[in-house]
Structures are given as structure tokens and as C-alpha cells.
Amino acid sequence: MNTTTHPGTALITGASSGIGAIYADRLARRGYDLILVARNRQRLETLARGITDKTGRSVEIVTADLGQPADVQRIEALLRSDASITMLVNNAGVGGAAPLLQSDVDKMQAMIELNVTALTRLTYAVAPAFVARGHGTIINIASIVAVAPTLLNGVYGASKAFVLAFTQTLQHELADKGVRVQAVLPGATRTEFWDIAGHSVDNLPQAWVMSGDDLVDAALAGLDKGEVITLPSLPDAADWHAFESARAALGPNLSHDRPAARFGVAR
Ligand code: NAP
Asked: Quick check: is 220 in a domain?
């Protein structure tokens, strides 16, 4: 008797290269059919052919520029209508290394539209279906800059801090409805990201740079362990829990009916 159940279809954004392409390979090996989204059709076609040849899984490709509202809406419609989709990997993203005042504000807005707006809209499109079915997985690729915002471009750090906070609220609201949520916080990873961000990965201390293969394998191992926040480089998960505990400890003092005495303005 065949007792294996089909895990369904994973929709991966930014699947044409780097981390997204490796997720595509790994999830197909885990038995998922795939919908791969990015702008570069040729790369998507080559990847899809290779994956189908290796794994026999069905791989659909959808070209979309997730910086364009009409394209985002097309993917939202797909996420709402395709009941086979059981996993969304919000991976598409761009970064930057330039300081704020040396960065073009239009490029910063485009980064927010891709890293924040598209990710939010795609999550909103799929989450109700996952809740209705009582299962589904949302993986959001954030970055270590979510907790170290001054390392690279500040808008990039802020966009990834959004992804982390958004994932934590998704976990808070959806975990008891059967939806699995994970934010992955990669450190420097050897992909084209760095060339696009204008900072060669070869100029980083190589002890900081992880391969995309190791990154995705560790992130999926974190998912299997039930981690909500996965930092693939962090040796001791207790360090993350200590960080979160420090945040939670602020709770009782975050809102009072008068300013703290240290400001000297209490009436
Ligand atoms: P990458 O190789 O440059 O991949 C980025 C992917 O996003 C590509 O598939 C690209 O495909 C897609 N993409 C870019 N703009 C898009 C748009 N407007 N619409 C649709 N797709 C778009 O870089 P990566 O390192 O794999 O990045 C993946 C994620 O990891 C990003 O969210 C990034 O912020 C995050 N991350 C990376 C690192 C790192 O060191 N590499 C560290 C932390 C976090 P097309 O060009 O074909 O559209």
C-alpha cells in the first residue's frame, strides 16, 4: 500500500536564481509540485526542465514583475484560486549596500514595493485559503539585517524588519488555525544578490559567506524542527530566545497613563 501523501504545490517567488532556485530543487525532492515566479522566463524554463527531469514533479512557471501592481494581482488571483497550493515561499527580494543619503529614493520605494508590499499582498491572498483548509505553510525570506539594520542599506534593513515582524504576527494569529509560518534570516549568502546590490560578495570576509545550498538546507531543517524564526548561522538557538525574552520583558512598561519619571514631565 502506498502510504505517502502528496504534499501539494509550493509557489516560490524569485525562483529564477539564488535561494529561490534552491528552494525549488529541495521542495521538488520533497515531493512538492511547483509554481515558480520571477521575471526571467528563460531561467525559469531551464530550471523547471531540470527539476522535472530529476524529480518527475510538475513545474509551472509564471513570469511576473512583483514590483508591478498588476503582476502582483495576477499572482494573488492564482494563490486564491489554485486549491492545490499548500506552501508559499516569499523569497523575491532585492537589497542595497549604499548609505541612505547616497541612495535614490525611487529605488528605495521600488525595494519596499517588492520586499514589503508584494510579500504582504501574496500572504493576504493565500492565508484565508490555508485557514479554511486548516493547513498550509508560509515561508518568508527575511535577513539578518532585520535585527542588524545598520549593516547594509537602511531601507533594506527596515524592509526585512517588516518581514520579521509580519511573520511574528502571522504566527501569533494563524498558528492555532493549522498554518505553519517561518521567517528565515540568512546572513551573507553567495548569490547574485550582492552584484545587484552593488557590493561584490568576494569583498566580504569569506568566513561570513554561506553557500545557497547550505542556507536552504538549514532553513528547511529549521522548518522541520518547528522553528518560527530560523537563523541558519546562529550556533545556539537559546541566544535568539534570550533576545526575544528581552523584548517581551519590555511589555509591562510599553504603555502607561503618564510619561516615565525620568523625563521629569509627569503631572
Ligand atoms: P538573487 O539570486 O538575486 O535572487 C533574487 C530573486 O528575486 C531572483 O529570482 C529574481 O528573479 C527575483 N526578483 C528580483 N526582482 C523581482 C521582481 N521585481 N519581480 C519578481 N521577481 C524578482 O538573490 P538571493 O540571495 O537568492 O535573494 C533571495 C532572497 O534572499 C531576497 O529576499 C534577499 O533579500 C534574501 N537574502 C539574501 C541574502 C544574501 O546574502 N544573498 C541575505 C539575506 C537575505 P528575476 O530577476 O528573474 O525577476
From this structure: yes
Cβ–ligand 1 distance for 9 under 6 Å, the answer no
Q: Residue 219: CB within 6 Å of ligand 1?
A: no
Does the pTM of the predicted model rise above 0.90?
yes
CA distances from 13 to 22, 128, 227, 239 (A): 12, 19, 21, 30
Question: Distance, CA 3 to ligand 1 centroid (Å)?
Answer: 36
**15 Cα: distance to centroid of ligand 1 (angstroms):** 8
Question: Which among 33, 36, 35, 37 is positioned nearest to 8, based on CA atoms?
Answer: 33
Query: Is residue 252, in this structure, part of any structural domain at all?
Result: no
pLDDT tens for each residue of 192-216: 999 988 889 999 999 999 999 999 9
pLDDT(3) > 60: no
Give me 235's grid cell.
550556533
Backbone phi and psi for residue 89, each to the nearest 5 degrees, phi listed first: -110, 105
| Closest residue by CA, ligand 1 atom 31 | 93
- Residue 113: name the closest of 101, 126, 122, 100 by CA: 122
Say if ligand 1 is within 6 A of residue 157 CB. Answer: no
CATH code, domain with 128: 3.40.50.720
- Per the structure, the count of domains in the chain is 1
Residue numbers of the domain that contains 62: 9-235
Q: Which pLDDT tens digit goes with each residue over 7-16?
A: 999 999 999 9
Report yes or no on 175 lying in a domain. Answer: yes
Beta bridge partners of 36: 12, 61
Q: Is 213 touching ligand 1 by the criterion CB < 6 Å?
A: no
Residue 3 lies in a domain: no
